[in-house]
Write a structure and sequence with these properties.
2 domains, 3 helices, Alpha-Beta Plaits
Length: 163
């Protein structure tokens, strides 16, 4: 079971943890009324360190991703983000995500429970590096380069296999 980066903070605040998608995440901090009151009168924090992130770089990143999500990324500029549905080649929903635009990349922020059902596969070899595992495994942070139309990547459902 993986721990969140802010695990010590959650422990200090008396969090009650539950397992979700291979992570130990806070389910609550005791009284729900006290939590609601604290957020309404002071501040709340959401720990998103368990989320999967895929960074797309390269000259074709916008045209490549634009056909796979429900948001029009062609009007998207650096510093913007949007919620979108991720579609396969038959326009079936694979999952939902947030897309963040930077000057030279797009970052997909995927729910940890969905990251295993969404993977990146290529028809031809392209430049790609990952932090800890193959692209098809959707590591915690994956980097994919989409340089030319003939080397496009497509996102699809991860194949299921018996272990």
């Amino acid at each position: 079971m993986q721990e969140l980066r802010l695990q010590p903070y959650h422990d200090l605040r008396g969090a009650i943890f539950r397992p979700e998608a291979g992570w130990s995440i806070p389910a609550g901090y005791g009284s729900l009324d006290a939590e609601v009151r604290a957020v309404r009168t002071r501040a709340g924090m959401i720990d998103l360190s368990d989320r999967a992130k895929i960074e797309l770089t390269g000259s074709e990143r916008v045209p490549f991703l634009d056909g796979l999500v429900t948001t029009d990324l062609k009007i998207f500029g650096p510093g913007m983000s949007t919620y979108a549905l991720l579609l396969n080649e038959k326009s079936r929903v694979l999952g939902d995500l947030r897309v963040y635009a930077f000057a030279d990349s797009l970052v997909l922020d995927i729910d940890p429970a969905q990251k295993d059902s969404i993977c990146v596969s290529s028809r031809k070899p392209v430049s790609a590096t990952t932090s800890s595992s193959a692209i098809s495994g959707c590591a915690a942070t994956s980097r994919c380069t989409v340089p030319r139309p003939e080397n496009r990547w497509r996102l699809s459902s991860a194949p299921t296999s018996a272990a």
